[in-house]
Design a protein that fits this description.
The complex is a heterodimer of chains A (158) and B (142). Chain A is α+β, with helices and mostly antiparallel strands. Helices cover 39% and strands 26% of the residues of chain A. In chain A, strands 1, 2, 3, 4, 5, 6 and 7 form a 7-stranded antiparallel beta sheet that branches. Chain B is 37% helix and 19% strand. Chain B has 142 residues and is α/β, with parallel strands linked by helices. Classes of the chains: A alpha+beta (158), B alpha/beta (142).
């Protein structure tokens, strides 16, 4: 597993998903701590996890303030933000993580087959699972957008 | 001729986005119905005729390929074209979709233009006067 190449694929994937499906330009903040999303979010955070297996295995995760997630959902569905439901927001967050992870792997190596699990929303009690110490590699990306910041991580397990 | 289309995806927002995109694609669409699982899709396919199925690949219990397998086992359903919508980008997986009988695939993230191209390829170009412009009227900005 080539970390630099995988990181570049993750960045390209996030940019493509957010720009194609949400018309949302973004910038990556080098050295940003994605746990800061939880600390700074006004109104709570949504966390989502997606397990994968293949040439290497692990999970990807997505941390996004609720208000930012609601804005993205409204944009995705063409709905007024006031009418966006919790179910729609959760579905959009899961779909973003699914698209970002799948696209990143296809950019990283389109000859390899990665099996993606089903994205799951993580209740706060399970967030510590996202920071497991028993890892081979962790890659975190802190993303700045005009609508607010969010974080994506890729955790490779031994 | 108006086409009846079935959208199969466990993601509620994605079903809504695909539905809007198809409506704006320029085809004379009859009914566009939604199923949230492969099993629900099979029930709906047995109950009424659809001209096209657009299915997600990665779904719990019955994935898109398993849905195609199930449809191929039933004579009436085996002729309905199925387009697989997927985040999968591996050449091997795409070859597998086509080998199993998918009419085509769409990789996420997609643009409305990609959906339109695939529908054109599978269902034929819309006739004159059937186009509903470029989707602006449908608020098609994802």
């Amino acid at each position: 597993m080539e970390k630099q190449s995988l990181m570049a694929s993750m960045k390209a994937s996030i940019s493509e998903v957010m720009e194609t499906m949400f018309f949302l330009p973004l910038e990556f903040e080098d050295g940003g701590d994605i746990k800061e999303i939880i600390r700074s979010a006004d109104g709570g955070t949504v966390a989502c996890k997606l397990a994968f297996s293949g040439p290497f295995s692990g999970f990807s995760c997505f941390l996004i303030p609720v208000k930012v997630a609601q804005g993205l959902t409204a944009s995705f569905l063409g709905e007024d933000i006031a009418r966006v439901t919790e179910e729609q927001t959760a579905g959009t967050v899961k779909e973003i993580l699914n698209m970002v992870t799948g696209k990143a792997f296809s950019l990283y190596d389109n000859q390899a087959v990665f099996k993606l699990g089903i994205p799951e929303i993580m209740p706060p009690t399970k967030w510590p699972h996202l920071w497991t110490k028993d890892v081979k590699e962790v890659m975190n990306l802190y993303v700045n957008t005009a609508d607010g910041d969010f974080g994506l991580g890729l955790v490779i397990l031994p | 001729m108006a086409f009846n289309i079935l959208i199969v995806d466990d993601s509620l927002p994605m079903r809504a986005v695909i539905k809007r995109t198809v409506r704006a694609s320029g085809f004379k669409v009859g009914e566009i119905l939604e199923a949230s699982s492969g099993a629900e899709a099979m029930k709906m396919l047995r109950a009424q005729w659809f001209d096209l199925v657009l299915t997600d690949y990665n779904m719990p219990e019955m994935n898109g390929m398993e849905l195609i397998d199930a449809m191929k086992k039933e004579e009436l359903l085996s002729t309905i074209p199925v387009i697989v919508i997927t985040t999968e980008g591996s050449q091997q997986k795409i070859a597998e979709f086509m080998e199993k009988g998918a009419a085509d695939f769409i990789q996420k993230p997609f643009t409305p233009e990609v959906i339109k191209q695939k529908l054109n390829r599978i269902m034929g170009e819309p006739e004159d006067g059937e186009a509903v412009s470029d989707g602006v009227d449908e608020g098609l900005d994802f």
